[in-house]
Amino acid sequence: MSASVLYVVTILLLAFSYARNREKTVQALKKAWKSFEGILPQFLAILMLVGLMLAVVDASVISRLLGSESGVMGMAIAAAIGSVTLIPGFIAFPLAASLLAAGAGYGQTAMFLTTLMMVGVVTLPLETTYFGRRLALKRNLLAFLYAVVSSFLLGALL
Amino acid sequence: MMKTLLQRYRMFLLLFAVNIALLFLQPSTGWKALSLTGDNVMEMLSFLPPIFVLLGLLDVWVDRETMMKYMGDRSGMRGMLLAFLLGSAAAGPLYAAFPMAGVMMRKGAGMLNVFIFIGAWSTTKIPLIMFETATLGFRFMIMRLLFNMAGIILIAVILARDTSSMPTQAD
Predict the structure, then answer these.
(1) Are B36 and A54 in contact (CB under 8 A)?
(2) How far is CA B26 from the centre of its chain?
């Protein structure tokens, strides 16, 4: 759904750009291809790694680990799984909903979602190429700490 | 040429070999991993091309002065708001935001705004919020959203302070 909006916007802008200046548009497309091809090896390696990981730790394993009364241990497992894996939103939210239905706490569910979105261990090498190691590590660390604090708060409040 | 290509893709090839080995050792897990990777690659290919085209357009049309004016260190509230809206309107997982952030930094956007953009992209994307409401309920969504907005700004402020003490590198 959001991808089609993205395509429409991109095509419109591209057409507009082409009408204004052909050379610049061709140059833009060349740059687009160059940066895409430059980062492709990393993307593919990341996705391959994620595929292998999720084949072992699948939805049923996750929901068993984060099930009812998993408590602080459940929080820790949720944080670990969320930080390391990379699951698209359209899979993560239904999974989170089924976690809640299976008896996982709000805290564990929020922890899983927040770390999933903000912390990326497998994408760290990619992040490092743009921000440098120090900043990339620091951003992930801060995001992780924030996820822990906010999830405990949320778990207590809801 | 051939050698550098192999070198660049060595990590991918290594993991691919592991997956092939897994197909023989534990066929069901191996196939599952392969199909998951296939799904993810398809997902990636569905939204990455337009993002990179937008990146290219941004690169050739928006010059340094414009970027600095709207999102530079002195852009204030307007810059922050713009960064927030840009990130929230995005599509695709967080790793797609990094190349975008790279171009923004190169063009002179302030680090605070770059990290607000990254934070918004990771958690306050509009389609994602609607989806979260549908699957997890409004109360859960709004609580997480409010917390996250505070968290995004907090993290961005800390990271920006960290970079301002470093010499700015020009590349």
Answers:
(1) yes
(2) 34
Beta-carbon separation of B128 and A89 below 8 A = yes
Instruction: Kindly determine whether residue A127 and residue B139, on different chains, have CB atoms separated by under 8 Å.
Output: no
- The string of pLDDT tens digits covering residues A130-158 is 999 999 999 999 999 999 999 989 888 87
Residues of B in contact with A113 (CB under 8 A): 144
Residue of B nearest to A39 (CA): B99
Structure tokens at B144: 């997480």
- Residue at A143: amino acid letter: A
The percent of residues in chain B predicted with pLDDT above 70, rounded, is 94
Closest CA to B51 of B5, B94, B82, B9: B94
In this structure, what DSSP letter does residue B170 have? P
Do residues A55 and B29 touch, judged by C-beta distance below 8 A? yes
Contacts of B142 (CB under 8 A, 6+ apart): none
Contact B96, A130 (CB under 8 A): no
CA distance A108 to chain B (A): 12
Query: Which residues on A lie below 8 Å from B50 (Cβ)?
Result: 3, 6-7, 9-10
What is the token pair recorded at A16? 């507009």
